[in-house]
Each structure stands twice: as C-alpha cells, then as structure tokens.
Structures
1.
Amino acid sequence: MFAQRRTRTWPRLRLLHPSLLLCAALAGWPCLVHASTIYMPRGESVEDERGDFAFELLNLALKKSGADLQVKPTETRMPQSRAIVELAAGNGRVHIVATMTSRQRERQLLPIRIPLTRGLIGWRIALLRAEQRDLLRDVRLLSDLKHFSVAQGHDWPDMDILHHNGLNAYPVANYDGLFGMLKAGRIDWLPRSANEIWGEAARHPTLAIDPYLVLHYPAADYFFVNRNNAALAEQVRRGLELALADGSYEQLFLLHYGALIRRANFDQRRVIELSNPLLTRETPLARKELWFTLNDLKRYRQPDKISD
C-alpha cells in the first residue's frame, strides 16, 4: 500500500523545483515540508560566536552553487553532541553542522571535506588566569606541558587528541564551563584556537593570553550533513570550490580572521607539534591551498591583503 501511494504522488513532484526532487529522492518525504530552508544549530551560549563564520560561508557556498535555499539558525541552542544526534536522526530539526572532524563523525555523518577555517582550529594558544600570564614561559617541549592541566568539551575531538599526546585534559560538560573551571583554578590553562581566543579573552577580562607558545596539530572543521542528503552535500561542496576558485572564500576568511592571524604572531612563538590520530585517509592534506601555514603570514600581513 505504501508503494502504491508513492507511485500515485510522484507525478505531482514534477511541478516542484529540481532541488526538491533531489531532496525527495535522496532524503525521503520529511524534507519536502521545509525544503527551501535548512537549519544550522545555534551556538551553545549567548556569548558563543564560533559559528558566525560558518554561517556566512554556508550562505556564500549556496549562492555560488545556485541553490535556492535559505539558511536559518535553530530556535534552540545546542551543544555539538546534540546537534550531531539531531543531524544523524534526519528529523528535519538540523540539516547541516559545522564542526571539527573525526573518524567517528565521518562514519556517522556525511562530511564535505573542505576545511572551513583552513585548519586554524588546530593552531592553539593558551588562555590563562591574568595573574599567571607567564605560567608557560619556560615550556620548550611537549613533555614540559604535561605538568599542567587543561580542559576541553567532553564531546570534542580535541579531548582525544590531547590525551593521545599525553596531556592532562579534563572534560567539561559545556562551553561556558571551560572558563569557569579556569577562573576557579581547577585547571591551569585552556588551549583555544587562534580564531576563538581573542573574543573569549575580551569577554573574560580576568583571563589573559599566553605570549610564548602555540600548539599545532592538523585538524579540520567541515560542514556535515545527514548521510542520506547527498544532494545538499554536493551543492555545498560545489559552492565552496567555486568560492575558493574566484577568491571570495579567501576574502571572507580574511575579513573574519586576517587581523587575528596577524595578532597571534605565530612565527614569534615556540611551536609545539601534536599528532592527530582522528584524521581519516580522505583528509585533503595534499591540497595545500586548503590549509593555513606559517608561510602564509608574510602574505597576510600585507596591508592591502587584510582588512581590520
């Protein structure tokens, strides 16, 4: 009976926009209800601005690919773990998530393997209590860092990376809890990415940014969609490739992060390399244009290249 009902209904679909036909064929009937709107998860807290760039980049990619889709944030805020569960369930509450990749996430969801922030998420600077801003001044090696405690989100891939490299890392239930633990002296420092730390330090004036070190491990934040939504994945992938080709991706990237990269002074810090066991073989490490390196600094420091 179900097959007969679908057979009678298919002719009506020919009147719909082609993107709806793809959505129906690949993701099932529920997507037809809100096929012109896709939802990204809203940040964990009011102060969480980490998704702003991804939201703008997704709109740019969809515009470049010609997709007739509107992006909206979800009504409720949600941590990464819930957003991933909602996306994997395919219930229509979340259609796309921007988050750091791991082997598990690439098995659970469909990744679009273009690093959104050129791997900046793997360049980590220490956030400290202001009275201990020189805490890491004498750190030279990874082994030196093992004497200090850190925290990360309990469901973040970074936890596994830090543990894999022998660091003393404690799990935190939510984003805001990171800063509470540091202020309370329950941990010594927080490894925050270069595209996050300046805003976080500004919102927490009792904290300070370490001037001496930067941790680096290869890491990528991707857009992920439900594994049955290959049509949306292809639209976003094609749009991102077009934005990379015509320079509009780099323009948006530098608008958000150019001044922060200059401010970080990576080349004046001691770089401590960590390994990342969570990357899959499909990670596009060979595509050098997709990743930030220290060689980019000279180009990014040109006044006509970066707008503050």
2.
Amino acid sequence: MNKKSVLGLLLFSCVVIAGMFLGTMLMIGKQPDPDYNQNQQEISQNASDDDSELQADEGEVGSPKQSLDANREDEWLYTDASDNITEDADDETLNNEPTESPDTVEVTPTPSTEPQQDVSNEEEPNPSDSEESPSDNEEGASQDSTDAGDTANTEDGENSDSTDTIGGNVVDLPDMQLINNSNQVDYMQHIPDMVYNSKIEVALDIINPVLDVKAKSAILFDAKTGEVLYYKDPVTPVFPASTAKLLSALVALDWCMEEEEVIAGDELGLVASDSTLARIRKGQVLTVRNLLEGMLVPSGNDAAYVIAAYVGRKSLKNENASLKEAIPEFIKLMNNKAKSLGAVNSSFKTPDGYDAIGQYTTAYDMGMIGLASADNETILDISNKSSARNVFVDGSDVTWSNTNSLIVKESGRYYPYCLGLKTGTSTMAGRCLISVAKKDDRMVVSVVMNSDAVGRWEDSTTLLKYGLGN
C-alpha cells in the first residue's frame, strides 16, 4: 500500500470518529420532550391515587370508603355510605369478627373509628348511623349521631336522582335508595304533609305536662290503655333509624315460628358498608329466634336483611325468589303492618332502618309500633337482655351485647324499671330510643326521636319516671 492510500485511510478514520463524536454530543445535549415528561408524571400520580383508593377500600367494615361488590348478582344497593351511618354504626359497630370455626365468639358493639367522626363533643355528634354499647364512654360521639342542626340536615340538596344516593342508578328498584350524602339530598321533598286525623286529635287532647325533654320529638303512652301521657311535636316527620327493627321483628313473628331455620345468603351483600353488624356469615344456619336476637340486641343490620329475605320469599311463596323480589316484598309487609297498628304517617324503605329516600315516621307512629312490641312476649324477652348468647344451628356460638344502656346495670344509665325495646341512631335520625318500663301495675312506653348522645337516655328516663309516677 502506497503512502497516499495510508493517508487516505487515516483521513477517513478521522472523519468517521469526528462524526461519531459530534453525534454523541448532540444526543447527550438534547433537551427532554416536555410532553413525554408530563405524561410520566400523570401516570405516576394516577398510580398513587389508585393505590390510595385501593387501600381505603380494603379497610374494615365501617370505613367510609368501603363499598359493596358491584358485580354481585343481586346487587342493587351499592357503595360507600360515607355520610350515613346506619343505625348503629357508631355505637353499635362491632369489631370482633367471628372466625370460620364454630368456636365461641363474643360480639360486643364498640365505637367506630371512622376518620370523619369527631369524638370530642358528645352533645354535637357527627353524622353517622350507629348504636352505642352501654360500656362505651358516654362522652364519646357516635358515628351516626346527629342533631337537627347538623350539617347533614340541609334542605339545599339534590333530588333523588342524585348519585349521592346508594342504589340511585339501579333499575327496577327506585324505592330503595339509601342516602349516601345527606348534605346533597333534598330528602324533605319526598315527605308528604302529615295526616292529623280524628284519632290522633283525640289522643293528643290532654293537659300536656311540662317536662324537660331535649329531643326534637317525643311521646309517652300508658302501655295498658294506650292513653297519651305526654307529647312533644308527635306528628312531626322524623327518621326511624334502627327503631324500625321493632317493626321488622313484628312482621317476622307474624310469618314465622321462632324455631324455623334460615340459611344466610347473598342478602348479606346488600348491607351498607358502615352498618352495625351481628357478624353473620354467608352459609350459616340460624333460627328465626337467632336472627331476632341479632337484630334487636346488637342491632345487626345483617340480621335484618337475612330475616327480610327469608320472610319476603315466604310471603311470595317462592323460596327461589330473587332479592329484587324478596326484599321489596318484606318492605311492603312492614308498611302494611305499620298501617294496621295505626301508624298513618310513616313510610319504611329498609328492613334495618338505614336512612333512605322517602323513609320517614313520627314519634306518634313509632309509639304505635312500640306499644305492639311491648305487648309481644318474644320481643320483650329479647330486648330485656343486657347480653344474648346464641348457638346457631351450624354450631357457631356468639354472645352479643345490648345497645340499650337503660337495661345494663354497669352502664351508668341503668333504669331499674326499664324492660327494654330498641335504640336507633343515624345521620338524619339523630339518637333515638323506644323504651318500656313497668312498676307495680303501671306500664308505660316512651318514644324519644332525634335527641343527642346523652339526651336520649336522660329524656327517656325523664318520661319513664313521670309515667310511672316517679
């Protein structure tokens, strides 16, 4: 190879190396694509948000982010009930979940720890649906308690088509819309004018005593004669919360024998995520008596739905009826029963009393239901228990604690003449209590609706003492 060829190769090599060097420098010095960088940030942020929501959704029952399975076959009550706490989600929420074995389990209602709750002031509890264990600190607020002035009770909300109602998008069941956010639901538009008939007029034609009662609405009856002894706004619309379970129990006892066996099924999936529970599991075999105790003692919304599905199918004479058929059938039976008792200003939409569009009652109407319950030996026997041990047909052994402080000696609210009946708490209902008490030959039923955490006990005791002659 001659000298010129060698020089040519060297020159070519230098050009190639220089080109590669310049190309590398250009690539290193190139500015990043701003669109590409932004997309990566959005992807990262979305992934973070998804992880947060997933973590919230995997919380325990009672979490405001927990929702029911949207793919369930008979699902028509959905999702997150962050503002409404079914009757008993705060005071009654249970935290001792049974295991899969039939070992003995003690199920005791304890206060919910939902993040939106303010437990610093019992007199002004935050919205929620729950019941209160007698052993709970009376200075703590219940998850589902609220006063009439609570922000949950606004009149500037949306209509029933709002997505702020659970089940609002479900076809074929427009009458069962649980209220998810009472701040955005104009529930009052679904309540008609109250009927003030001659029977009510005559009943309230008394010299009404002056008593210190904090509740928005209250009434006191002589249990034997039905005579009204005291009243405060007795025909004002209020919300029943879990006091509605007394009516569900009356309906169940109209249709069933206590020893009938029931298998818990998919209806458990219809219970709102923030409900108070008796911790019944799908596939468990219970008697009607077991379900009544689970509904009336710890105020289990799950027990209410199991009994509703069973009785609804029994009424339809179709044990294979879907939940979309069975539950509304039971609700129909509830309303028919209420009317037969003289409750003419009530509309019940749920078997457990959970706040729902179009559901309402009055203290007078709940008094009619309370009188019938006080006259029912089974309901009286169950509701008078401070705790109830139940052994299910499948061998499960559970013990429930009563949410009614008036009958629990250790509660600090104990009233020795009280024989029981039912508590109720929800965002819209506030703190409620229907009580029966007996002293010598005197027996009375008191109804306290929309009081506060301390007031419902004090109001009830005031009424009962007056009715029994102190």
